[in-house]
Amino acid sequence: MKIKKILVSQPEPNNPKSPYFDLAKKYNLKIDFKPFITIEGVSAKDFRQQKINILDFNAVIFTSKTAIDHFFRICNELRIVVPDTMKYFCITENVAFYLQKYIVYRKRKIFHGKAKFQDLIDVIIKHRDSNFLVPLSEPHNAEIPGLLDSNDINYTIGTMYRTISSNFSNINDFDYDILVFYSPSGIKSLKENFPDFVQGDIKIAAFGPTTACAVEQEGLRLDIHAPNPKAPSMTMALDDFLKDHNRNCR
Hints:
By secondary structure, this protein is α/β, with parallel strands linked by helices. The protein has helices spanning 19-27, 44-48, 65-77, 93-98, 117-125, 143-150, 184-193, 209-217, 234-248; strands at residues 5-8, 30-33, 37-41, 59-62, 87-90, 109-112, 132-138, 155-165, 178-181, 203-207, 224-226. Helix 1 packs parallel to helix 9 (234-248) and helix 7 (184-193) runs parallel beside helix 8 (209-217).
């Protein structure tokens, strides 16, 4: 059967030129956007209880744009002026460029990996004398502290936001052909909202290695994975899959 309906676990794009809208038109699809998780910022008061002094650190590790937003939010609420000497280590170049929202990019020491946290570790090791702050969510991926520990990196995790599963009780017909996930928390939310979920013919797409791993750890089948050598973005991976799938359905 041809793919007709896709659920994407992200907010609907504001940009009318989003590749998702192009996909919908190209393949005559209905694409719904609904975040499987919501982000809740930790208050400045709760952050203080972690007894972390941001100015004790000379380097910050960012694993997402969300982490950047909440780091600078906390700094603003605590009236902390981040020194120009602070070093920033970002999981990808795209995340690194997002720093421009808060700092003068070209005047700062900014480093980035390629896609996986392991790539960034190789960069961090070259600066192992630094004292690293790692803004993360609660819960967070255990791989991150695990890799930092195994490489003897001096770091502290600061919980600055929480991920909470969204409520899908208002969805009567969960009749999607493809589910698209961008984080392990999205997979967790799927299982919490639909404990009796049976995948069957439903295709699951995952962006990033940790999300793909979460799919398989839950005993689900991973059908579409991005980025990959042919498709650096999820929409490109979906396009490739739909092209082959629909051809075989003729």
